[in-house]
């Protein structure tokens, strides 16, 4: 069975408050950029945090990784490419690649989120709304 990749690309501009005194993006902001990518992905593909909350669930991050290759600087634009990784487990797995305005890979990473119900119980199976979304997306 061939996997179908769902991706989203979001263009962002480095803001002054995200940089250190040298004008280079502070490393901790890349995790925030990943969040920007997840938000854009959700809007594009119909899986926003509001959709998840409306269904009665929250999705805390249980793992995040980030590898840095090149710096971003104040005023530059960059693209965040967010890819949903399909899994049989009740998880949201996203991979990220950040490319600078010269299309060079700046950073890559991954986050894993789990589903908790309204009583903060870990869901071992895909919630019905999530399985419906996956079916709709052909996953």
From TrEMBL:
SUPFAM superfamilies: Thioesterase/thiol ester dehydrase-isomerase (SSF54637)
Keyword Hydrolase: yes
Keyword 4Fe-4S belongs to the record: no
Span of the signal peptide: none
Keywords (A to Z) from UniProt: Hydrolase
InterPro entries, alphabetized: 4-hydroxybenzoyl-CoA_TE, HB-CoA_thioesterase_AS, HotDog_dom_sf, YbgC/YbaW
NCBIfam families, A to Z: YbgC/FadM family acyl-CoA thioesterase
Family: Belongs to the 4-hydroxybenzoyl-CoA thioesterase family.
Official protein name in the record: Acyl-CoA thioesterase
Organism: Chryseobacterium formosus
Taxonomy of the source species: Bacteria, Pseudomonadati, Bacteroidota, Flavobacteriia, Flavobacteriales
């Amino acid at each position: 069975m061939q996997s179908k990749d769902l991706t989203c690309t979001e263009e962002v501009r480095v803001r002054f408050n995200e940089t250190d005194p040298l004008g280079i993006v502070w490393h901790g902001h890349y995790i925030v950029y990943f969040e920007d990518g997840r938000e854009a992905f959700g809007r594009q593909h119909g899986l926003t945090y509001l959709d998840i909350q409306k269904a009665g669930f929250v999705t805390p991050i249980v793992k995040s990784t980030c590898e840095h290759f090149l710096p971003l600087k104040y005023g530059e634009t960059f693209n965040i490419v967010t890819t949903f990784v399909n899994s049989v487990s009740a998880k949201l797995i996203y991979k990220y690649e950040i490319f600078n305005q010269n299309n060079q890979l700046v950073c890559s990473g991954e986050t894993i989120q789990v589903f908790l119900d309204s009583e903060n119980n870990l869901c071992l199976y895909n919630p019905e709304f999530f399985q419906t979304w996956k079916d709709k997306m052909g996953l």
